[in-house]
Amino acid sequence: MLGGIEAGGTKFVCGIGTGPDDLKTASFPTSDPDVTLRQVIEYFQVNAGKDLEAVGIGSFGPVDLDTASDTYGFITTTPKQGWANFDLAGTVARALNVPVGFDTDVNAALLGEARWGAAQDLAHAIYLTIGTGVGGGAMVQGQVIHGLVHPEIGHLRLPHDWAKDPFPGTCPYHGDCLEGLACGPAMQKRWNAPAATLPHDHPAWALEANYLALALVNLTLTLSPQRILLGGGVMQQPQLFALVRAEFSKLMNGYVQHPDVLTGLDQFIQPPGLGSRAGVLGSLVLAELEQAATMLDHVIRERENRGNKA
Ligand code: ADP
Ligand code: ZN
User: Fold this and answer.
1) What residues make up the domain containing 86?
2) Residues around the ion ligand 2 (C-beta < 5 A)
3) Which ligand number lies closest to the CA of residue 172?
4) pLDDT digit string (tens) for 146-168?
């Protein structure tokens, strides 16, 4: 039995199971780390107990993914009260005494989609969420990218036509980066109304599609994904996908000569297949990967011990 935790800025979704068919979940508000973690740990103790073999965590960030670092598994510089420099993976590992896999929330969601969702059988894919913030994970040759720290796709810099859109953006670091221009709260601030209440033919959606398509073109040109999945609250607008695809086509202008981005855009840019369960299901994949790595580690160490005795 595996455990998954989608650690978000508003709630922690915990899951127990092996995949979409047997997944059971519960969620707890993200309050004080001590309070939230006590609830999370108790959930696994009560509902899985000794059957729990490993846990995976997909976390809001920034996070430290460098296994050689003293602060591996920590949430690092978040402005979220109480959570900066919090040892999330370590706290869970010590309390439950099982291997703990750790990655960003968006990398976890992408792993879930690659295993059971809309990116199955693809080696190169991108997952973006456009909600309270904008975040993204990328898989290249079957591996999610970590790199120096981890990609921060939400903060891509985009051309910003100030005459057309005088809104300065909401990002505290950059103002008008992708997140600053296109997240749900940016839409609300620009148009003085919650994004969900703007009519389908409001000019807000064409502008939103333009910013998202600019980001998607840049991502396609740099990482050459086979598919891009767009999730999050803002993408609940059904008309937005067609607008993004049309804008993407226009901006790309036929440059990438592959049928998937010429005539197959309905598939190339599409919603996640697992909906809101992508993150927690992906955390199960992280648990499974960590369990396998731990077993391999044991085998190697045992062999070394035997070698030393001989
Ligand atoms: P989070 O990013 O916090 O995990 P969501 O992905 O659900 O959560 O994003 C929430 C944001 O998405 C809200 O702040 C709002 O701006 C926007 N949103 C939610 N529902 C809709 C909708 N139906 N249409 C457009 N925007 C929406
Ligand atoms: Zn930014």
Assistant:
1) 2-108+276-289
2) 155, 171, 173-174, 177
3) 2
4) 999 999 999 999 999 999 999 99
Query: Which ligand 1 atom minimizes the distance to the CA of 8?
Result: 4
Amino acid letter for position 7: A
Amino acid identity of residue 126, one-letter, is I
310 confidence band (pLDDT: 50, 70, 90): low
Q: What percent of the chain clears pLDDT 90, i.e. is strictly above it? A: 95
Question: Is 282 a domain residue?
Answer: yes
Do both 197 and 256 map to the same domain?
Answer: yes
Ligand with minimal distance to 183 CA: 1
Structure-block tokens of residue 77: 């510089």
Mean pLDDT of all residues in 235-248: 96
Q: Is 25 left (phi over 0), alpha (psi -120 to 50) or beta?
A: beta
Q: Which of 6, 191, 236 for a ligand 1 pocket mutation test, highest count of atoms within 8 Å of Cβ?
A: 236
Residue 88 shares a structural domain with residue 130: no
Same domain (yes/no): 45, 124: no
67 alpha carbon – ligand 1 mean position (Å): 33
Distance 232 CA to ligand 1 centre (A): 6
Q: Is the pTM of this model over 0.90?
A: yes
The predicted structure's pLDDT at residue 238: 87
Q: What are phi and psi of 121, to 5 degrees?
A: 65, 15
